[in-house]
């Protein structure tokens, strides 16, 4: 399905469960930056919105409550995702508010949350890097669980994580060195991932010299 169809169904499902302040916060707090993050980063990297909650209410360090932009709730972890803008409200933030935001993040960590923060500029101009970060945390914190539609060997999963977190294309020799395997084995695993549509060549045609992760393999992680 398209992003628009999935997004509308997802956001409406959360509206149906809310009322009062929680509904008001969803309507007012979930705006342009948050939708842009979903469209250009999360959807491209993951391909669905399961276990992702917008404007999620959490306990405040001052014994009140506040909302985080997104909560990804998947045992055994709780992931808080915040989008930091750089509009007038961000530039004009006073020292008290700045300190309050830092204390809020500290409280989330103390309460067992893992925290990811993305700037508006990055999700606008550096989507690829943000997508890599999302895939990297999926691989690191949720291990080897993969989409039922894909059957990956352990080495293939390791290589995908290397490519998802890499900032430049990787050559078979580099994969060999990082995983401690023979170059010919690295080349074979890379070819297998290419055939499955998870990675793509970055240079070379008949003889591929390097590879990058392909966003088309977005359903790799659940």
The value of Rg in angstroms is 20 Å
Q: What is the name of the CATH topology of the largest domain?
A: Endonuclease, Chain A
Helix proportion of residues, in percent? Answer: 40-55%
Q: H/E series, N to C? A: HHHEEEHHEHHHHHEE
Mean pLDDT: 82
How many discrete domains? 2
CATH architecture label name of the largest domain:
3-Layer(aba) Sandwich
- Helix count from the secondary structure assignment: 10
- With strands numbered from the N-terminus, the spatial order across the biggest sheet is 1-2-3-4
Short description:
By secondary structure, this protein is α+β, with helices and mostly antiparallel strands. Helix content is 51%, strand content 19%.
Topology diagram in text:
Elements: H1 3-15, H2 20-29, H3 32-46, E1 52-59, E2 65-74, E3 77-84, H4 88-91, H5 95-110, E4 113-119, H6 120-125, H7 127-142, H8 154-165, H9 172-179, H10 183-195, E5 199-203, E6 210-213
Parallel strand pairs: 3-4
Antiparallel strand pairs: 1-2, 2-3, 5-6
Helix pairs in contact: 3-7, 8-10, 9-10
Characterize the structure shown.
The protein has 222 residues and is α+β, with helices and mostly antiparallel strands. The chain folds into two domains: 3-137, 3-Layer(aba) Sandwich (Endonuclease, Chain A); 145-220, Winged helix-like DNA-binding domain superfamily/Winged helix DNA-binding domain (Arc Repressor Mutant, subunit A), CATH 1.10.10. Helix content is 51%, strand content 19%. The chain has ten helices and six strands, in the order αααβββααβαααααββ. A hairpin with a 2-residue loop joins β2 (65-74) and β3 (77-84). α8 packs across α10 and α9 packs across α10 (183-195). The radius of gyration is 20 Å and the shape is elongated. It starts with a helix and ends in a 9-residue tail after the last strand. Residues 144-149 and 218-222 have low confidence and may be disordered.
């Amino acid at each position: 399905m398209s992003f628009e169809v999935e997004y509308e169904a997802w956001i409406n499902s959360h509206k149906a469960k809310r009322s009062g302040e929680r509904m008001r916060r969803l309507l007012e707090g979930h705006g342009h930056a948050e939708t842009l993050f979903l469209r250009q980063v999360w959807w491209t990297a993951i391909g669905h919105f399961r276990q992702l909650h917008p404007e999620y209410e959490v306990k405040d360090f001052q014994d009140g409550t506040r909302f985080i932009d997104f909560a990804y709730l998947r045992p055994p972890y709780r992931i808080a995702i915040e989008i930091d803008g750089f509009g007038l409200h961000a530039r004009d933030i006073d020292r008290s508010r700045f300190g309050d935001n830092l204390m809020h993040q500290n409280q989330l960590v103390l309460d067992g949350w893992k925290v990811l923060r993305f700037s508006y500029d990055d999700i606008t101009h550096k989507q690829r890097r943000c997508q890599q970060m999302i895939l990297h945390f999926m691989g690191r914190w949720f291990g080897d669980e993969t989409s039922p539609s894909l059957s990956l060997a352990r080495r293939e999963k390791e290589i995908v994580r290397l490519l998802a977190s890499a900032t430049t294309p990787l050559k078979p020799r580099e994969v060999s060195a990082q995983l401690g395997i023979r170059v010919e084995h690295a080349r074979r695993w890379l070819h297998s991932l290419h055939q499955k549509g998870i990675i793509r060549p970055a240079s070379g045609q008949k003889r591929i010299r390097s590879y990058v992760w392909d966003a088309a393999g977005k359903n790799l992680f659940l």
